[in-house]
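lol forgot to send this yesterday, sorry. struct tokens for the thing we talked abt
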């Protein structure tokens, strides 16, 4: 699909056809959404669909998980007119951080970090990632936010 073409009739999820097929082999069960992110209407419709379940929910801040969650998270934050918090892999933040260990999809032990000066008790955070494979990074991000009172 052309990156500038917008279908006349846009069915829900039409933009999924923009994602590149898996070229990494049979042991990888994901598609590359970076092409979708290049399509202005596709990205807008994707974000609108992702936000549909949260209509009316009080959201104070949007957080995205390193690294592809930054793209969707920032787009969601901009759409909602909210701030964006990057939850990073260890060692990438040059400020005081909280750290949380986790096991990634490949079984490796890793650490996620977030700044300590952004989330205060009661802040409602919408946590965004590109996909959740085993839940390890998502659980670590949730624990970090909850430790701050979010």
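and heres what i got for the seq, position by position
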């Amino acid at each position: 699909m052309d990156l500038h073409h917008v279908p006349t009739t846009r069915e829900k999820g039409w933009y999924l056809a923009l994602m590149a097929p898996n070229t990494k082999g049979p042991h990888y069960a994901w598609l590359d959404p970076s092409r979708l992110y290049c399509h202005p209407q596709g990205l807008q419709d994707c974000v609108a669909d992702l936000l549909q379940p949260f209509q009316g929910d009080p959201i104070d801040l949007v957080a995205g998980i390193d690294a592809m969650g930054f793209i969707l998270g920032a787009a969601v934050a901009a759409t909602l007119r909210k701030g964006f918090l990057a939850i990073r892999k260890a060692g990438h933040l040059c400020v005081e951080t909280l750290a949380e260990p986790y096991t990634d999809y490949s079984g490796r032990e890793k650490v996620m970090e977030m700044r300590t000066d952004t989330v205060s008790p009661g802040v409602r955070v919408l946590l965004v990632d590109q996909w959740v494979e085993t839940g390890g990074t998502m659980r670590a991000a949730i624990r970090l936010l909850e430790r701050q009172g979010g």
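The longest helix spans residues 40-51. anyway ping me if u want another try
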